[in-house]
From TrEMBL:
SUPFAM superfamilies: Periplasmic binding protein-like II (SSF53850)
Transmembrane intervals: none
CDD domains referenced in this protein's UniProt entry, alphabetically: PBP2_NrtA_CpmA_like
Subcellular location per the Swiss-Prot or TrEMBL entry: Endomembrane system
Pfam families: NMT1_2 (PF13379)
Protein name, entry field: NitT/TauT family transport system ATP-binding protein
GO MF term (any one): ATP binding
Lineage: superkingdom: Bacteria
Protein backbone atom coordinates (compact mmCIF):
# COMPACT_ATOMS: atom_id res chain seq x y z
CA UNK A 1 0.00 0.00 0.00
CA UNK A 2 1.25 3.47 -0.83
CA UNK A 3 2.25 5.11 2.45
CA UNK A 4 0.85 8.44 1.33
CA UNK A 5 -2.67 7.00 1.13
CA UNK A 6 -2.79 5.35 4.56
CA UNK A 7 -5.24 6.79 7.05
CA UNK A 8 -4.74 7.79 10.64
CA UNK A 9 -5.40 5.06 13.18
CA UNK A 10 -5.19 4.82 16.98
CA UNK A 11 -4.61 8.54 17.48
CA UNK A 12 -6.84 10.70 19.65
CA UNK A 13 -8.21 13.78 17.93
CA UNK A 14 -6.62 16.94 19.29
CA UNK A 15 -8.37 20.14 18.18
CA UNK A 16 -6.42 22.71 16.19
CA UNK A 17 -6.18 26.31 17.37
CA UNK A 18 -9.51 28.07 16.98
CA UNK A 19 -8.36 30.96 14.78
CA UNK A 20 -6.17 31.06 11.71
CA UNK A 21 -4.50 34.26 10.57
CA UNK A 22 -3.16 34.42 7.05
CA UNK A 23 0.50 33.47 7.22
CA UNK A 24 1.22 32.58 3.61
CA UNK A 25 1.99 29.09 2.41
CA UNK A 26 1.20 26.20 4.73
CA UNK A 27 3.78 23.96 3.00
CA UNK A 28 6.62 23.41 5.46
CA UNK A 29 9.97 22.17 4.21
CA UNK A 30 11.46 19.89 6.86
CA UNK A 31 15.01 18.56 6.88
CA UNK A 32 15.83 15.22 8.51
CA UNK A 33 18.59 12.65 8.88
CA UNK A 34 17.72 8.96 8.17
CA UNK A 35 17.18 7.75 11.74
CA UNK A 36 14.31 6.07 13.56
CA UNK A 37 14.06 9.09 15.85
CA UNK A 38 12.72 11.06 12.87
CA UNK A 39 9.56 8.93 13.26
CA UNK A 40 7.28 11.71 14.48
CA UNK A 41 8.02 13.96 11.50
CA UNK A 42 7.76 11.09 9.04
CA UNK A 43 4.51 9.81 10.56
CA UNK A 44 3.01 13.31 10.55
CA UNK A 45 3.73 13.60 6.83
CA UNK A 46 2.87 10.04 5.80
CA UNK A 47 -0.24 9.28 7.86
CA UNK A 48 -2.18 12.52 7.53
CA UNK A 49 -1.56 14.21 10.88
CA UNK A 50 -0.10 17.35 9.29
CA UNK A 51 -2.76 17.44 6.58
CA UNK A 52 -5.50 17.28 9.20
CA UNK A 53 -4.17 20.54 10.68
CA UNK A 54 -4.02 22.26 7.29
CA UNK A 55 -0.29 21.71 6.77
CA UNK A 56 1.82 19.89 4.21
CA UNK A 57 5.23 18.62 5.32
CA UNK A 58 7.79 18.37 2.54
CA UNK A 59 10.43 16.04 3.99
CA UNK A 60 13.99 16.47 2.75
CA UNK A 61 16.48 13.73 3.62
CA UNK A 62 19.94 15.16 4.32
CA UNK A 63 23.40 13.68 4.80
CA UNK A 64 24.86 15.49 7.81
CA UNK A 65 23.87 17.53 10.83
CA UNK A 66 26.02 20.45 9.68
CA UNK A 67 24.00 20.50 6.45
CA UNK A 68 20.73 20.48 8.38
CA UNK A 69 21.96 23.33 10.57
CA UNK A 70 23.07 25.43 7.61
CA UNK A 71 20.00 24.82 5.48
CA UNK A 72 17.76 25.85 8.36
CA UNK A 73 19.86 28.98 8.93
CA UNK A 74 19.82 29.86 5.21
CA UNK A 75 16.03 29.39 5.03
CA UNK A 76 16.12 26.34 2.79
CA UNK A 77 14.26 24.55 5.60
CA UNK A 78 11.42 25.92 7.69
CA UNK A 79 11.85 23.29 10.39
CA UNK A 80 14.29 20.48 11.03
CA UNK A 81 14.91 17.21 12.84
CA UNK A 82 17.85 18.21 15.03
CA UNK A 83 20.14 16.87 17.70
CA UNK A 84 18.98 18.11 21.10
CA UNK A 85 22.22 20.06 21.73
CA UNK A 86 22.10 21.91 18.39
CA UNK A 87 19.69 24.68 19.47
CA UNK A 88 21.68 25.09 22.70
CA UNK A 89 24.93 25.42 20.74
CA UNK A 90 23.33 27.95 18.41
CA UNK A 91 22.12 30.16 21.26
CA UNK A 92 25.63 30.03 22.78
CA UNK A 93 27.16 31.12 19.48
CA UNK A 94 29.06 27.85 18.98
CA UNK A 95 30.02 26.37 15.63
CA UNK A 96 30.85 27.94 12.30
CA UNK A 97 27.31 29.13 11.59
CA UNK A 98 25.55 29.70 14.93
CA UNK A 99 22.26 31.03 13.61
CA UNK A 100 19.72 31.37 16.48
CA UNK A 101 17.62 28.22 16.77
CA UNK A 102 14.94 27.19 19.25
CA UNK A 103 12.95 24.05 19.94
CA UNK A 104 9.32 23.99 21.10
CA UNK A 105 9.10 20.18 20.98
CA UNK A 106 11.19 17.13 21.71
CA UNK A 107 10.79 14.39 19.10
CA UNK A 108 11.14 11.69 21.75
CA UNK A 109 13.62 9.87 23.95
CA UNK A 110 15.89 6.91 23.38
CA UNK A 111 17.38 5.33 20.29
CA UNK A 112 21.14 5.65 20.79
CA UNK A 113 23.61 2.88 21.50
CA UNK A 114 27.37 2.37 21.62
CA UNK A 115 28.83 -0.31 19.37
CA UNK A 116 32.42 -1.53 19.36
CA UNK A 117 34.14 -3.68 16.76
CA UNK A 118 34.03 -7.41 17.38
CA UNK A 119 37.85 -7.37 17.45
CA UNK A 120 37.93 -4.77 20.21
CA UNK A 121 35.20 -6.48 22.20
CA UNK A 122 37.12 -9.78 22.03
CA UNK A 123 40.15 -8.00 23.54
CA UNK A 124 37.95 -6.63 26.32
CA UNK A 125 36.61 -10.11 27.09
CA UNK A 126 40.12 -11.53 27.21
CA UNK A 127 41.62 -8.70 29.27
CA UNK A 128 38.81 -8.36 31.83
CA UNK A 129 37.19 -11.80 31.75
CA UNK A 130 34.06 -9.96 30.59
CA UNK A 131 30.71 -11.73 30.62
CA UNK A 132 28.35 -11.58 27.64
CA UNK A 133 25.72 -9.98 29.89
CA UNK A 134 28.05 -7.39 31.42
CA UNK A 135 26.55 -4.01 32.30
CA UNK A 136 27.31 -0.81 30.44
CA UNK A 137 29.62 0.30 33.25
CA UNK A 138 31.43 -3.06 33.31
CA UNK A 139 31.93 -2.81 29.54
CA UNK A 140 33.37 0.70 29.93
CA UNK A 141 35.72 -0.47 32.69
CA UNK A 142 36.88 -3.39 30.52
CA UNK A 143 37.58 -0.99 27.68
CA UNK A 144 39.67 1.12 30.07
CA UNK A 145 41.84 -1.92 30.82
CA UNK A 146 42.39 -2.49 27.10
CA UNK A 147 43.22 1.18 26.56
CA UNK A 148 45.82 1.09 29.37
CA UNK A 149 47.32 -2.07 27.88
CA UNK A 150 47.49 -0.46 24.43
CA UNK A 151 49.33 2.54 25.87
CA UNK A 152 51.85 0.28 27.59
CA UNK A 153 52.44 -1.59 24.31
CA UNK A 154 52.83 1.63 22.34
CA UNK A 155 49.80 0.99 20.16
CA UNK A 156 47.98 3.82 18.40
CA UNK A 157 44.89 5.06 20.28
CA UNK A 158 41.47 3.77 19.38
CA UNK A 159 39.39 5.78 16.88
CA UNK A 160 35.75 6.15 17.86
CA UNK A 161 32.99 7.68 15.77
CA UNK A 162 30.12 9.94 16.75
CA UNK A 163 27.76 12.03 14.68
CA UNK A 164 28.57 15.64 15.57
CA UNK A 165 30.47 17.48 18.33
CA UNK A 166 27.28 19.17 19.58
CA UNK A 167 25.31 15.95 19.88
CA UNK A 168 23.82 13.66 22.48
CA UNK A 169 26.00 10.94 20.95
CA UNK A 170 29.20 12.84 21.70
CA UNK A 171 28.19 13.63 25.28
CA UNK A 172 26.83 10.13 25.98
CA UNK A 173 29.91 8.48 24.48
CA UNK A 174 32.15 10.73 26.58
CA UNK A 175 30.05 10.11 29.70
CA UNK A 176 30.28 6.33 29.22
CA UNK A 177 34.01 6.40 28.52
CA UNK A 178 34.80 8.65 31.48
CA UNK A 179 32.62 6.62 33.86
CA UNK A 180 34.73 3.58 33.01
CA UNK A 181 38.03 5.41 33.44
CA UNK A 182 38.81 6.40 29.83
CA UNK A 183 39.65 10.05 29.14
CA UNK A 184 37.88 10.78 25.83
CA UNK A 185 40.27 13.63 24.97
CA UNK A 186 43.62 11.98 25.72
CA UNK A 187 43.11 8.19 25.70
CA UNK A 188 41.13 7.78 22.46
CA UNK A 189 40.45 9.72 19.28
CA UNK A 190 36.87 10.86 18.60
CA UNK A 191 35.91 11.61 15.00
CA UNK A 192 32.69 12.54 13.19
CA UNK A 193 31.07 9.83 11.02
CA UNK A 194 27.63 10.27 9.38
CA UNK A 195 25.16 7.72 10.83
CA UNK A 196 24.57 5.63 7.66
CA UNK A 197 28.34 5.23 7.20
CA UNK A 198 29.15 3.91 10.67
CA UNK A 199 28.67 0.22 9.94
CA UNK A 200 30.83 0.34 6.81
CA UNK A 201 33.51 2.34 8.62
CA UNK A 202 33.57 -0.26 11.41
CA UNK A 203 33.76 -3.12 8.92
CA UNK A 204 36.64 -1.44 7.09
CA UNK A 205 38.59 -0.87 10.30
CA UNK A 206 38.48 2.92 9.86
CA UNK A 207 36.95 3.21 13.33
CA UNK A 208 36.94 0.90 16.36
CA UNK A 209 33.49 1.83 17.64
CA UNK A 210 30.73 4.39 17.43
CA UNK A 211 27.77 5.95 19.20
CA UNK A 212 24.82 6.61 16.91
CA UNK A 213 21.05 6.34 16.69
CA UNK A 214 18.97 3.41 15.47
CA UNK A 215 18.95 1.48 13.27
CA UNK A 216 22.67 1.70 12.54
CA UNK A 217 23.91 -0.07 15.69
CA UNK A 218 21.87 -3.18 14.92
CA UNK A 219 22.88 -3.02 11.26
CA UNK A 220 26.48 -3.42 12.44
CA UNK A 221 25.70 -6.18 14.95
CA UNK A 222 23.67 -8.21 12.45
CA UNK A 223 26.46 -7.87 9.86
CA UNK A 224 28.78 -9.44 12.41
CA UNK A 225 31.13 -6.45 12.56
CA UNK A 226 30.04 -4.90 15.84
CA UNK A 227 28.98 -5.61 19.41
CA UNK A 228 26.49 -3.32 21.19
CA UNK A 229 27.91 -2.56 24.66
CA UNK A 230 25.62 0.19 26.00
CA UNK A 231 22.32 1.87 25.20
CA UNK A 232 21.18 5.39 25.90
CA UNK A 233 18.95 4.12 28.71
CA UNK A 234 22.02 2.70 30.48
CA UNK A 235 23.70 6.11 30.59
CA UNK A 236 20.69 8.28 31.49
CA UNK A 237 17.14 7.18 30.57
CA UNK A 238 15.74 10.74 30.33
CA UNK A 239 18.61 12.12 28.26
CA UNK A 240 17.18 14.39 25.53
CA UNK A 241 17.65 13.06 22.01
CA UNK A 242 16.21 14.75 18.90
CA UNK A 243 14.15 17.92 18.80
CA UNK A 244 12.17 20.04 16.37
CA UNK A 245 14.36 22.97 15.38
CA UNK A 246 13.19 26.30 13.97
CA UNK A 247 14.42 29.88 13.70
CA UNK A 248 12.96 32.12 16.42
CA UNK A 249 12.00 34.84 13.95
CA UNK A 250 10.13 32.24 11.86
CA UNK A 251 8.26 31.05 14.95
CA UNK A 252 7.43 34.64 15.93
CA UNK A 253 6.09 35.47 12.48
CA UNK A 254 3.93 32.34 12.12
CA UNK A 255 2.38 31.66 15.54
CA UNK A 256 -0.70 29.83 14.22
CA UNK A 257 1.39 27.66 11.92
CA UNK A 258 3.63 26.75 14.87
CA UNK A 259 0.60 25.90 16.99
CA UNK A 260 -0.93 23.73 14.26
CA UNK A 261 2.41 22.05 13.65
CA UNK A 262 2.80 21.17 17.33
CA UNK A 263 -0.76 19.82 17.47
CA UNK A 264 -0.03 17.62 14.43
CA UNK A 265 3.30 16.36 15.76
CA UNK A 266 1.88 15.70 19.22
CA UNK A 267 -0.86 13.53 17.68
CA UNK A 268 1.72 11.76 15.49
CA UNK A 269 3.87 11.09 18.57
CA UNK A 270 0.92 9.52 20.38
CA UNK A 271 0.34 7.30 17.36
CA UNK A 272 4.03 6.30 17.12
CA UNK A 273 4.00 5.16 20.75
CA UNK A 274 1.28 2.57 20.15
CA UNK A 275 2.75 -0.92 19.47
CA UNK A 276 -0.12 -1.83 17.14
CA UNK A 277 1.07 0.94 14.79
CA UNK A 278 4.71 -0.16 14.66
CA UNK A 279 4.36 -2.39 11.60
CA UNK A 280 2.95 0.50 9.57
CA UNK A 281 5.51 2.90 11.00
CA UNK A 282 8.39 0.50 10.24
CA UNK A 283 7.28 0.17 6.63
CA UNK A 284 7.18 3.94 6.24
CA UNK A 285 10.58 4.39 7.87
CA UNK A 286 12.20 1.64 5.78
CA UNK A 287 11.20 3.37 2.54
CA UNK A 288 14.12 4.61 0.42
CA UNK A 289 12.84 8.19 0.81
CA UNK A 290 13.32 7.96 4.54
CA UNK A 291 15.79 5.61 6.31
CA UNK A 292 16.32 3.01 3.58
CA UNK A 293 17.15 0.20 5.99
CA UNK A 294 15.75 -3.34 6.41
CA UNK A 295 12.20 -3.20 7.71
CA UNK A 296 12.76 -6.16 10.06
CA UNK A 297 15.59 -4.35 11.83
CA UNK A 298 13.43 -1.25 12.22
CA UNK A 299 10.59 -3.36 13.66
CA UNK A 300 13.00 -4.82 16.19
CA UNK A 301 14.43 -1.51 17.34
CA UNK A 302 10.95 0.01 17.69
CA UNK A 303 10.12 -2.83 20.07
CA UNK A 304 13.47 -2.61 21.87
CA UNK A 305 14.63 -6.07 20.75
CA UNK A 306 18.37 -5.99 20.17
CA UNK A 307 20.72 -8.38 18.49
CA UNK A 308 23.85 -7.43 20.44
CA UNK A 309 26.10 -9.34 18.06
CA UNK A 310 25.99 -12.01 15.35
CA UNK A 311 26.48 -14.82 17.92
CA UNK A 312 22.89 -14.77 19.13
CA UNK A 313 23.34 -12.60 22.21
CA UNK A 314 20.29 -10.38 22.57
CA UNK A 315 18.61 -7.93 24.89
CA UNK A 316 15.18 -6.34 25.28
CA UNK A 317 15.10 -2.69 26.39
CA UNK A 318 11.69 -1.55 27.55
CA UNK A 319 10.69 1.81 26.07
CA UNK A 320 13.81 1.99 23.92
CA UNK A 321 11.88 4.63 21.98
CA UNK A 322 9.39 6.89 23.73
CA UNK A 323 7.77 9.45 21.47
CA UNK A 324 4.99 10.84 23.66
CA UNK A 325 4.34 9.10 26.98
CA UNK A 326 5.81 10.40 30.23
CA UNK A 327 6.01 13.91 28.68
CA UNK A 328 8.66 12.80 26.18
CA UNK A 329 7.73 15.69 23.89
CA UNK A 330 8.12 18.43 26.47
CA UNK A 331 11.15 20.70 25.84
CA UNK A 332 12.38 20.84 29.42
CA UNK A 333 14.93 23.63 30.11
CA UNK A 334 16.71 21.48 32.72
CA UNK A 335 17.62 19.18 29.83
CA UNK A 336 19.07 22.14 27.94
CA UNK A 337 21.10 23.02 31.02
CA UNK A 338 22.43 19.47 31.39
CA UNK A 339 23.58 19.73 27.76
CA UNK A 340 25.28 23.03 28.64
CA UNK A 341 26.98 21.31 31.58
CA UNK A 342 28.50 18.78 29.19
CA UNK A 343 29.68 21.51 26.86
CA UNK A 344 31.42 23.12 29.84
CA UNK A 345 32.76 19.79 31.09
CA UNK A 346 34.43 18.98 27.78
CA UNK A 347 35.82 22.43 27.03
CA UNK A 348 33.46 23.51 24.28
CA UNK A 349 32.43 26.67 26.17
CA UNK A 350 33.34 28.39 29.46
CA UNK A 351 30.83 28.48 32.28
CA UNK A 352 29.00 31.76 32.89
CA UNK A 353 25.64 32.98 34.14
CA UNK A 354 25.01 34.51 30.69
CA UNK A 355 25.77 31.15 29.11
CA UNK A 356 23.35 29.42 31.46
CA UNK A 357 20.58 31.82 30.45
CA UNK A 358 21.37 31.48 26.75
CA UNK A 359 21.36 27.68 26.94
CA UNK A 360 18.00 27.58 28.73
CA UNK A 361 16.48 29.99 26.16
CA UNK A 362 16.92 27.41 23.38
CA UNK A 363 14.15 25.23 24.83
CA UNK A 364 10.71 26.85 24.59
CA UNK A 365 8.09 25.17 26.79
CA UNK A 366 5.97 28.33 26.49
CA UNK A 367 5.29 27.53 22.82
CA UNK A 368 4.51 23.92 23.70
CA UNK A 369 1.99 24.97 26.34
CA UNK A 370 0.43 27.60 24.07
CA UNK A 371 -0.30 24.94 21.46
CA UNK A 372 -1.21 21.97 23.65
CA UNK A 373 -2.49 23.55 26.85
CA UNK A 374 -1.13 23.96 30.35
CA UNK A 375 -2.45 20.51 31.23
CA UNK A 376 0.02 18.99 28.75
CA UNK A 377 2.98 20.24 30.79
CA UNK A 378 4.61 17.96 33.41
CA UNK A 379 3.71 18.59 37.03
CA UNK A 380 7.36 18.64 38.16
CA UNK A 381 8.12 21.83 36.25
CA UNK A 382 10.72 23.08 33.82
CA UNK A 383 13.82 22.93 36.04
CA UNK A 384 13.85 19.65 37.89
CA UNK A 385 16.74 17.83 39.53
CA UNK A 386 17.78 15.06 37.14
CA UNK A 387 18.94 11.57 38.05
CA UNK A 388 17.40 11.24 41.51
CA UNK A 389 14.33 9.18 40.58
CA UNK A 390 14.79 5.38 40.89
CA UNK A 391 13.89 4.79 37.24
CA UNK A 392 16.02 7.62 35.90
CA UNK A 393 19.54 7.25 37.32
CA UNK A 394 22.78 8.29 35.66
CA UNK A 395 25.06 5.28 35.16
CA UNK A 396 27.65 6.63 37.63
CA UNK A 397 25.14 7.76 40.26
CA UNK A 398 25.63 11.51 39.80
CA UNK A 399 22.71 13.89 40.36
CA UNK A 400 22.27 16.98 38.20
CA UNK A 401 20.89 20.06 39.94
CA UNK A 402 20.41 22.82 37.33
CA UNK A 403 20.71 25.37 40.12
CA UNK A 404 24.24 24.20 40.91
CA UNK A 405 25.64 23.60 37.45
CA UNK A 406 29.27 24.58 38.02
CA UNK A 407 29.54 22.41 41.14
CA UNK A 408 28.10 19.50 39.16
CA UNK A 409 30.74 19.82 36.45
CA UNK A 410 33.55 20.10 39.00
CA UNK A 411 32.40 16.92 40.76
CA UNK A 412 33.68 14.59 38.03
CA UNK A 413 37.18 13.10 38.19
CA UNK A 414 37.45 13.48 34.39
CA UNK A 415 36.12 16.98 33.90
CA UNK A 416 36.29 20.69 33.14
CA UNK A 417 38.50 21.28 30.14
CA UNK A 418 39.89 24.60 29.07
CA UNK A 419 37.66 25.78 26.19
CA UNK A 420 39.09 24.98 22.80
CA UNK A 421 38.09 25.43 19.18
CA UNK A 422 35.49 23.00 17.83
CA UNK A 423 36.02 21.65 14.30
CA UNK A 424 32.55 20.44 13.46
CA UNK A 425 31.64 21.10 9.86
CA UNK A 426 31.31 17.52 8.69
Amino acid sequence: MNMMTKSIVSAPRVPAPASIRHEGSRVLRAGFIPLVDASVLIAAAEFGFAQREGLSLELVRDVSWANVRDRLAFRQFDIAHMLSPMPVASMLGLGSNPSPTITPLSLGRGGNAITLSTRLFARMQHKADLRDDASALENAQALARVVRSMKERGEAPLTLGMTYPFSSHNYEFRYWLAAGGVDPDTDVRLVVVPPPMTSDALAAGAIDGFCVGAPWNMVASERGVGRIVAAKQDIWPSAPEKVLGMRPEWADSKPDTVMRLLVALDAAARWCDEPENHDSLAEALADSRHISAPVDIIRHVLSGKFSLDAKGNSRVIQNYFTFHSDHAGYPRPSHALWIYSQMVRWGQVPYSEAGTAAAASAYRPDLYRAALGEEAAPADGDLRIEGERPDDRFMDGHIFDPGSLSNYVESFPVAWRKPHRQDEDT
